[in-house]
UniProtKB/TrEMBL annotation:
This is ABC transporter permease. GO terms for cellular component: plasma membrane. It is found in: Cell membrane; Membrane. PANTHER family: GLYCINE BETAINE/L-PROLINE TRANSPORT SYSTEM PERMEASE PROTEIN PROW, POSSIBLE OSMOPROTECTANT (GLYCINE BETAINE_CARNITINE_CHOLINE_L-PROLINE) TRANSPORT INTEGRAL MEMBRANE PROTEIN ABC TRANSPORTER PROZ. It is a multi-pass membrane protein.
Amino acid sequence: MNVIERTFAFLGDGANWQGAQGILARTVEHLGITVFAVAIALVIAVPLGLWAGHTRRGGQALLGFTAALRALPALGLLTLLALWFGVNAIPPLVVLVIIAVAPLLAHTLEAVTGIDPDVVDAARAQGMTEGQILRRVEIPLGLPVFMGGLRSAVLQVIATATIAAYINGNNLGRYLFDGLAVRDYPRMLVATLLVAVLAFVVDALMALAQRAVTPVPLRGGSGRGGASKRHRQQKHESALDAANSHTEGAHA
């Protein structure tokens, strides 16, 4: 059999899906380390992004910081951390958190700073405090943009979590490195296919979640040349209506 046939023969063998070393168990571990890393990154990135976006301070510095994080070579950083902390779960977790922080921080900042200033001014003119503006106006209106960052972070971590098996772990990347050690190319292809399918499924689910949190008037893409002036005005009017509704709810 050729490589493709052997790959699908491996996937079609029920024994390869069962047990602690099976595909299902490794998929669960892959998702587990992804969720854990993204959760830690959320705790780090979201408060920083909200503070910088609301106060309009330090935004450029944070964007530069995120650009630097994106430039770090994941495998090289993983190897360096393994030399410092040893072969355990810490090095891959730190690498994955760093990878997730970059898009989360950038999109959180963009979610707040991208809101029409008229919306914020309208909320402030109606007597809302800075904390209320952040909680009831900026966060709800910026949620779709933030969800885009969360979606990007999760996908990047799913893809990069594969290399966690290089140091420590029993996730889907184990097939890749085990196959590489003995030149078992079908096993390596299995790892590639499984991670790709997992990323596709998770991305589809998160796309639905992102659409669900997007107000109906703001849904839909713009034309190839950009949104028209009328479309931008409609978006601004919808945002103002949302801010007013939040304010009315606060006074009720």
